[in-house]
């Protein structure tokens, strides 16, 4: 693990999201954190969050919400990427690994196509329990 690579990873994750900014909105952009949403500020909700990256103390996280909304997106993850998965939609990397970054970039593209890139897709309704 080299914390020197964290800013490079962070910028690579941000770059993965740049092609989608015509349909996605930047919802957070600060030191060590960046997030994009499928809705503008006035209509944003937790159900419209698309992806984010964050520099932590021990790794750089990449959160990809389409895999949370559609778990089948993760069916063909490589064993190496599965090992980096934390929970349902978070991937933690400590070094620049070109194979893992390429796989995450492809997963992001598939996730966008199946959710935010599909004009018929709507975020799932949030339910509240009493």
Percentage of residues in DSSP E strands: 15-25%
Oligomer: single chain
The low-pLDDT segments are 126-130
- Can you count the beta strands? 6
Distance between the termini: 45 Å
Helix content: 25-40%
| Count of helix runs | 4
| Rg result | 14 Å
Report strand order across the widest sheet.
1-2-3-4-6-5
Overall form: globular
- Describe the main β-sheet briefly: 6 strands, antiparallel
Which structural class best describes the helix and strand composition? alpha+beta
Q: Average pLDDT across residues?
A: 88
- What order do the SSEs take from the amino end to the carboxyl end, as H and E? HEEEEHHEEH
Q: How would you characterize the overall build of this protein?
A:
There is one protein chain. This protein is α+β, with helices and mostly antiparallel strands. Helix content is about 30%, strand content about 20%. The protein is built from 4 helices and 6 strands, in the order H-E-E-E-E-H-H-E-E-H. A hairpin with a 2-residue loop joins strand 1 (about 25-30) and strand 2. Helix 1 runs parallel beside helix 4 (about 100-115). The longest helix is centred in the C-terminal third of the chain and has 17 residues, at about 100-115.
């Amino acid at each position: 693990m080299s914390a020197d690579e964290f800013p490079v990873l962070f910028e690579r994750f941000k770059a993965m999201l740049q092609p989608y900014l015509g349909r996605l909105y930047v919802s957070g952009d600060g030191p060590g954190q960046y997030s994009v949403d499928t809705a503008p500020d006035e209509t944003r909700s937790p159900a419209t969050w698309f992806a984010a990256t964050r520099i932590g103390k021990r790794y750089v996280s990449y959160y990809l919400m389409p895999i949370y909304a559609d778990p089948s997106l993760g069916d063909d993850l490589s064993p190496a990427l599965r090992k980096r998965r934390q929970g349902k939609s978070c991937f933690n990397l400590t070094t620049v690994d070109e194979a893992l970054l390429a796989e995450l970039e492809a997963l992001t593209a598939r996730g966008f196509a199946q959710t935010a890139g599909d004009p018929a897709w709507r975020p799932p309704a949030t339910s509240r329990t009493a």
